Amino acid sequence: MEHKNILAAIISPLCSWYRKNQRILPWRENKDPYRIWVSEIMLQQTRVEAAIPYYHRFLEALPTVEALAQAPLEQLMKLWEGLGYYSRVKNMQKAAVTVVEQYGGRFPADIKLLEKLPGIGDYTAGAIGSIAFGLPTPAVDGNVLRVAARLCNDDADIMLPQTKRRVKADLETAYPEAVDVSDLTQGLMELGALICVPGVPKCDLCPLTAFCEARKAGREQLLPVREVKKEKKTEKRTVFMLCCGDKVAAVKRPEKGVLAGMWEFPAVEGHITGGKAEQILTSWGMKGKGEAFVDNRHVFTHLIWEMKSYLVMADTMSDRFSWFSFEELQNSVAIPTAMKPFLTAMLKKVEEEHKQK
Ligand code: SF4
Question: Cα–Cα distance between 118 and 86 in angstroms, integer?
Fold first, then answer.
């Protein structure tokens, strides 16, 4: 059977299954495009269970697209702290400004206009289009590609753009068959998340076994085919936790590249000795002895940071850095996840020292 016919055949059983088995999730409470959009952006890199508290916090602070458009950048960064990939929330604000200024605060019910909004690619536009507006626009991500590859017993590499384009085109011909395209989009997502999972799918629980060509051929665990990812580049870094009184030094990263525009603790390339650390402190106009502190390894999409650190009780506050209180670092300055273990270790140390006094 042609792939598009298989994908058309599963629509009715999949939508029935979804209506009975869907998880109760906060972004499914209504069809508000703003709420759906926020959830889709958060879920791009974060698991559902982990995203829920962030989602509630974000919506409570910024309940409307107007509120997001006007929010100060520091508040946005703070609300996004822990989710990573901060360019996403910056793009969300740009898109919110466009929605407010060009569309009177209402998301356009048009897939082409949605795709033009900053940070909204074809997946997110398809999701908002079908879930919020009932447009026949599929949202094809890794989950949907996996389900489609198995249903169709398809050996095409799902990492290739042409495979995605073909699956999307097949789904586009199938979508008009659905009574409720919102259920179809969410059903595909839900099946991929709960049943047709990576590795060993739960075929015994699947409503689509009768249609699944990979299952019939005993190939469900061999699919989907995906090209081996390139190895991530590893960078060594040494982080300085510079303390002076109850203040800690931080510095903004460049506006381009990894963690663009985010605050971090001062750091240098490579893993350096205590002697070299002292020289660097001098070059920063500070005196103080560095005490070897905690290590941390942080994995980004294409990069790994292997970090060592020194804790330095400095005698002066060099004006090459910004200095924040512990309270500010915890509550109002957005510190990226890569830097959090250093802050946590330092707060713990300070707490222990207070107890000993
Ligand atoms: S039968 Fe198995 S492999 Fe096929 S769609 Fe269902 S869970 Fe996935």
Answer: 14
Claim to verify: residue 197 and residue 272 sit in the same structural domain: no
Question: How many whole angstroms separate alpha carbon 265 and alpha carbon 339?
Answer: 7
CB burial readout 138-170, b (16+ within 10 A) else e: bbbbebbbbbbbbbbbbebebeeeebbebbbeb
Which of 147, 200, 213, 222 most suits a substitution to test ligand 1, by most atoms within 8 Å of the C-beta?
A: 147
Q: CATH number, domain at 273?
A: 3.90.79.10
**Distance from the CA of 44 to the center of ligand 1, in angstroms?**
23
* Residue 26 neighbours by CB distance under 10 Å: 14
- For 321-331, the pLDDT digits (tens) are 999 999 999 88
Q: Are residues 124 and 151 in the same domain?
A: yes
Residues 94-143 pLDDT 10s: 999 999 999 999 999 999 999 999 999 999 999 999 999 999 999 999 99
170-198 average pLDDT score = 95
- Torsion angle of alpha carbons 94, 97, 101, 104, nearest 10°? 120
Give yes or no: residues 49 and 138 share one domain.
yes
CA of 200 to the centre of ligand 1 (A): 9
- Give the residue, out of 145, 195, 211, with the most ligand 1 atoms within 8 A of its beta carbon, to mutate for a pocket test: 195
Closest residue (by CA) to atom 8 of ligand 1?
A: 196
Whose structure tokens read 């590609």? 145
Residue 178 in 3-state DSSP? coil
